[in-house]
Specification:
The protein is of the alpha+beta class. It has four helices and five strands, in the order H-E-H-E-E-H-H-E-E. The chain has a single domain, classed as Histidine kinase-like ATPase, C-terminal domain (Heat Shock Protein 90), CATH 3.30.565.10. 27% of the residues are buried. The structure holds adenosine-5'-triphosphate (ATP) and magnesium ion.
């Protein structure tokens, strides 16, 4: 998360760490760090200045990491496709955010390899929430 601070500062987006406990995760630490980085960069990229990104975790049940942003959001029609390779929503162009559209495809393949799950919920214009779970 610390690695994303300079980008967040540059974009004038607040980055809040609300995690109270570490989320236990077994697997390839380097790949899992790559997942977190992709998700945080997306949250920063698709959020306007003065927006906010919050990273939270749940203690009960299956450990879950939640990354929410107050960004442009994702239209309902786009949501089923965001994990496709090279898929970019129209809002990505509006934000003038660069990227080939591979980040979430990579995230999905790493999380699948760890038998975890990754889900996106979004309200266009309000923001996006990503929920990440990994088996203990
Ligand atoms: N947090 C988010 N808020 C709004 N839109 C998002 C968010 N995360 C992803 N998206 C949308 O999903 C698309 C696909 O995301 P993905 O990370 O795969 O590609 P990218 O960020 O455009 O490029 P890359 O990650 O390869 O640099 C994005 O182009 C954007 O339209
Ligand atoms: Mg991306």
């Amino acid at each position: 998360m610390a690695a994303c601070r300079p980008l967040a500062e540059h974009r004038e987006v607040k980055l809040r760490d609300r995690t109270l406990h570490s989320v236990p995760a077994r697997g390839d630490a380097k790949r899992l760090a790559q997942v977190l980085n992709h998700l945080l960069v997306n949250a920063i990229k698709f959020t306007h200045a003065d927006g906010e990104i919050t990273v939270d975790s749940t203690a009960e049940g299956e450990p879950e990491l939640i990354i929410s942003d107050t960004g442009v959001g994702i239209a309902a029609d786009d949501l089923p496709h965001v994990f496709d390779r090279f898929y970019r929503c129209a809002a990505a162009e509006v934000m003038a955010a660069q990227g080939p559209g591979l980040g979430l495809a990579i995230v999905k393949s790493i999380i699948d390899a760890h038998h975890g799950s990754v889900h996106l919920e979004s309200e266009p214009g309000m923001g996006t929430t990503v929920r990440l779970t990994l088996p203990r």
